[in-house]
Structures are given as C-alpha cells and as structure tokens.
Amino acid sequence: MKAWLRWPAAGAALMLVLAPLVVAWLNVRGEEPLSDAVPGPAPAAQIQRGAYLAQVGNCMACHTQAGGAPFAGGRAIDTPFGTVYSSNLTPDMQTGLGRWSPDHFWRALHHGRSRDGRLLNPAFPYTEFTRISRQDSDDLYAYLHSLPAQSQAQPPSTLRWPLDTPWALALWRALYFRAADPSPQGPAGQSAEWQRGAYLVNGLGHCGACHTPRDRLGGLRSGEPFRGGLLPARQGYAPALSDPAEAGVMDWPVEDIVALLKTGINGRAVVSGPMAEVVFRSTRFLQEADARAMAVYLKSLPVQAARTLPVPPRWPAQLQLGRQLYEHHCAQCHGEQGQGVPGAYPALAGNRAVAMGQPANLVRIVLDGGYPPATPGHPRPHGMPPLRQQLSDEEVAAVLSYVRDRWGDGAGPVSSLDLLRDRGTDGF
Ligand code: HEC
Ligand code: HEC
Ligand code: HEC
After folding, report:
1. What is the pLDDT of residue 322?
2. Would you state the pLDDT for residue 416?
C-alpha cells in the first residue's frame, strides 16, 4: 500500500472500532449502579399515590390487552416499523416485574433499559417518561407491586430486520434519546403551578408523544415541540398544541381547558378518536390542582404555526355532490347552517377541526364515526354513526370538501387520495 493511503485507511479502521463504542457509551452514560433488593409491601398511602400516577401516565391503556387482565401486557402497539407488544407489569416472578427492584424500574423509565439490560423500544414512551421524578417512579413501583400477579409472557415484536436488532435501537437512541436531568431546575420566574404543569405534560402525561411531529426515523422533532403529529397506523392527526388555529388553548380560560381534560367536552370543542381514549382512561382522573397546572402550562406554550400543507384546487362538481350528501347524511345532526346542537352535536361552522390543514381526522370520523368519552361530567354523550358502508371514497371526499369549502376558513378540499392514504392502500 502506498504510504499516503495508509493513514486514511487506518483512520477508517479506527472509526469502525470506535463508532460502536461511542454508540454503546451514549446508551448507558449517566446510569448508576443498581441494587437488586426487592422491598416488602409498601405503605397504603404510597400505593394510592402510585395508583393515581399510573392513571395520569395512562400505563394501563398500553399495558392491557382487550379483555385481558389489567397491566398484564400483550397489547399490540403499532409503529411505522412494525408491531411492538407491551410487557407484563404485574409482580409475576417469571413474566412480570416480580424480581424487579425499584432501581431496575427507575432505569426502565429513566434510561429505557429493561432489568436484564436490554434496550427498550421507544413505543414505550420513555423519551417522555425519562422526566418522571425518582419519587414518582418509586410510588408507581409500589402500586404495580401491590397488584395480583398474572402469568403472561410478552409476545415478540414483528419489527423487520435490521430494525429488530439491538444495534439499530442503540443507534436510534444515540440519535434521539437523552436521559433527562434527574433533578432539573425549572426556568426561573415561573410559578410552582406552571412547573407542575410542565412536569405533567412533558413527563408522565407524555402529550408530546402524539402532539409533537416525528421525522422519518420516528424520532421526535424536539426543536418543534407540540407542532402537530401524524399518528402511525392511520389513527389520525394529533393537532398542534402550539397553534391556536389547531389544538392550541392559549386563548381559552383555564376553566375551559380543565373541562376538556376532565370531561372531553366544553363549549368550544369535543374530543374524539385517540384523544377521547386519553380523556377516558387518563385525564378525567386528574386532581383539580393537577388539571389546572396542566392548563396553565398549556396556555403558556409559545405559538408556533402547525406545519402547512399545499392547498389543492377546488372542483365545483365535487362541491355540488357534497352539498347533496351533506343534506342527506349530516344536516339532521350538524344543522343546515352547520350550527350543530349545543351539548349534543358539535357545530361544524367555526369549528377548528374542520379548518385544519391536515384532513386525516375528518376522514377518520366520517368513516368510523365516534363517541366523545362518557365521564361523570358528561355521562351520556351522543355519538356520530360510521358511514363507511353508506358512502364511497369519492362521496366521503365530496361531502368533506363541501364542509371545508363552506366552513373551513380557506382549508383545501379533501381528495380521494386522502381516502386511499387512510385505507393504507397507497403504501403510506
Ligand atoms: C404508548 C404505550 C405505552 C404507555 C402509555 C406505557 N407503556 Fe410501558 N411499555 C410499552 C411497550 C410497548 C413496552 C415494551 C417495550 C419493549 O419491550 O421494548 C413497555 C415496557 C415497559 C417497561 C419495561 C418492562 C420490561 O419487561 O422490560 C416498564 C417498566 C413499563 N413499560 C412501565 C410503564 C409505566 C409505569 C407506564 C405508565 C407511567 C407505562 N409503561 C406506559 C408501552 C407503553
Ligand atoms: C395517543 C395520542 C395522544 C396523546 C397521548 C394526547 N393526545 Fe391530545 N389529541 C390527539 C388527537 C388525535 C387529537 C385530535 C382529535 C380531537 O380533537 O379530539 C387530539 C386533540 C387534542 C386537543 C384539542 C381538542 C379539540 O377538539 O380542540 C387538546 C387540547 C389536546 N389534544 C391536549 C392533549 C394533552 C394536554 C395531552 C397530554 C395529557 C394529550 N393531548 C395527549 C392525540 C393525543
Ligand atoms: C346522528 C347524528 C350525526 C350525523 C348523522 C353526523 N354526525 Fe358528525 N358528529 C356527531 C357527533 C355526536 C359528533 C361528536 C363525535 C365525537 O366527538 O367523537 C360528530 C362529530 C363530527 C365531526 C368532528 C367534529 C369535531 O369537533 O371534532 C365532523 C367533522 C363531523 N361530525 C362531520 C359529519 C359529516 C360530514 C356528516 C355527514 C356525512 C356527519 N358528521 C353526520 C353526530 C352526527
């Protein structure tokens, strides 16, 4: 080999050896030595605190299979890269957390590593849970260890090679995951209520897991917090909490935000789809002070417009068909003038869900219908019927284009392509 070639070659070889070491180091730095000691039964007050925290973190939703034992895992979580199954959080010795110490549990939430050191898939939102305090982690642990043990092994994921390898995960984590500072100093000058809200929204509540956009590798775009995220597996769009034209609540009184979190409905909006689940399983249990703290923090988010989509041209024949369909299928509930019926059917006129650039949720609700969550504050909500059987793709596109043309404040029409995308038949 020529002498001048030798140095680059040696450099490349060195890189090949060093890069994996750097990636491995990025994945374990900041971790402390673990104790294996499993404590005895916890005081009742701690178990009760943990039970509440598990509701705020919505742990049960992901960790319970339809019809299965609570917290025994096995629920399929769709990701853009394949399906991951949740694990068993009951204290079973073989298949659950029976042998886990509070240190192991803290490492899973804070560093995203399992008891045996395995790197965990970020479908478990430890990218957010890393901000959970050690005290809250210990309380959650106490609660989970108080549950009846269930024997149920975690099914293997269906990720494709090489995404199912520890190296792919290690690389992903080196790019996108940093364990949070375990004792953070919040920004000076903010009230204790604001700090509490920031902690709940960004940590246990993991609102950003859906509401923050992700890039092609599934990494959260941390520079664009809460700017709106498209959910995997055609579950719809989590609108921007940073944009008052989408889901931003900067201009709402605190009471209205609290009402939305606790009942799923207020005079301005009604939740549906995945957000109805979040309210039903999690935020409706928020203690008044915590709901207010979240509201105060959400109100203070810096305004950042949602990502904009190009607006396609309008098509008069489609709008005419849409008008007929609206009168036949929608007007009896939503009104000739889109005015709705207060407390029963949401208005479409002046509704920001109708005007949103991204039409995924409109398509979703017309095809599948929906129910706002039933909560003590709003016990018997009216539902929207699914129209998948009655309307063709062209008709759904037409009626929604009409609704957007009339009440969408300049939002573009909906095309059959948006419908194909929803059915997942165009490869998205
Ligand atoms: C969005 C869905 C989701 C939510 C919400 C969620 N988890 Fe999980 N969790 C998962 C998935 C999926 C895994 C499996 C990850 C893997 O095996 O790589 C997991 C794994 C875990 C593990 C590691 C278990 C093991 O055997 O290694 C722990 C501990 C855990 N979750 C605790 C919690 C707690 C506590 C909460 C609530 C504060 C919670 N999870 C909320 C989806 C979720
Ligand atoms: C599983 C994904 C998911 C999570 C987690 C989630 N959201 Fe949502 N959110 C959605 C979707 C989808 C919508 C759009 C449907 C709707 O408007 O109800 C939405 C809508 C909203 C809206 C607008 C409601 C309206 O109709 O104007 C607010 C406000 C909101 N979310 C706040 C939150 C907060 C606060 C959290 C954390 C406690 C959170 N979300 C967690 C998916 C999610
Ligand atoms: C039987 C009464 C009924 C009919 C008919 C009906 N809807 Fe609805 N619609 C509802 C209810 C109730 C909701 C609230 C559902 C929820 O929150 O999940 C709703 C929600 C919606 C939303 C979401 C509003 C929001 O704020 O998120 C849109 C858009 C919508 N309907 C459009 C239509 C269109 C278009 C048609 C006709 C093709 C139609 N609806 C027919 C009752 C109805």
Report:
1. 97
2. 79
Q: What angle do CA 70, 74, 76 make, to 5 degrees?
A: 115
- The answer to whether 104 and 111 have CB atoms below 8 angstroms apart is no
- CA 349 from chain centre, in angstroms, equals 28
Q: What distance in angstroms lies between residue 271's CA and the mean position of ligand 2's atoms?
A: 7
Q: Would you place residue 427 in the very low, low, confident or very high pLDDT band (cuts 50, 70, 90)?
A: very low
- 233 CA → ligand 1 middle, Å: 19
Q: Can you tell me the mean pLDDT for 35-41?
A: 95
Q: Judging by beta carbons within 10 Å of its beta carbon (0-12, 13-18, 19+), is residue 255 exposed, middle or buried?
A: exposed
Closest ligand to the CA of 102: 1
CB 209 within 8 A of CB 127: yes
pLDDT band for position 1 (50/70/90)? low
Report, in angstroms and rounded to the nearest whole number, the Rg of the chain calculated over CA atoms: 24
CA of 279 relative to ligand 3 center, distance in Å = 19
Best mutation site among 265, 318, 333, 389 for ligand 3 pocket (most ligand atoms within 8 Å of CB): 333
Determine contact, residues 59/71, Cβ cutoff 8 Å: yes
Question: Which of 278, 296, 368, 371 for a ligand 2 pocket mutation test, highest count of atoms within 8 Å of Cβ?
Answer: 278
Question: What is the Cα–Cα distance from 67 to 62, expressed in whole angstroms?
Answer: 13
Q: What is the mean pLDDT of the chain?
A: 92
CA 63–ligand 1 middle distance (angstroms): 7
Mean pLDDT calculated for residue range 124-142: 98
Tokens of 81: 């890269």
Q: What is the pLDDT of residue 421?
A: 66
Q: CA torsion sign, 239 to 245 to 248 to 249?
A: negative
> Of 158-162, 315-319, 335-339, which one has max mean pLDDT?
335-339
Q: Positive or negative CA dihedral for 80, 81, 82, 86?
A: negative
Distance of CA 351 to the CA centre of its chain: 23
The answer to whether the CB of 119 falls within 8 A of the CB of 113 is yes
Residue 420 pLDDT: 67
228 HSE (CA, 13 A, CB side): 25
CB of 403 closer than 6 angstroms to any ligand 3 atom? yes
**261-277: b or e for each residue (b if 16 or more CB lie within 10 Å)?**
bbbbbbebbbbbbebbb
Residue-wise pLDDT tens digits, 272-300 = 999 999 999 999 999 999 999 999 999 99
Instruction: Find where tokens 């995960």 sit.
Output: 169
- Residue nearest to ligand 1 atom 25, measured at CA: 114
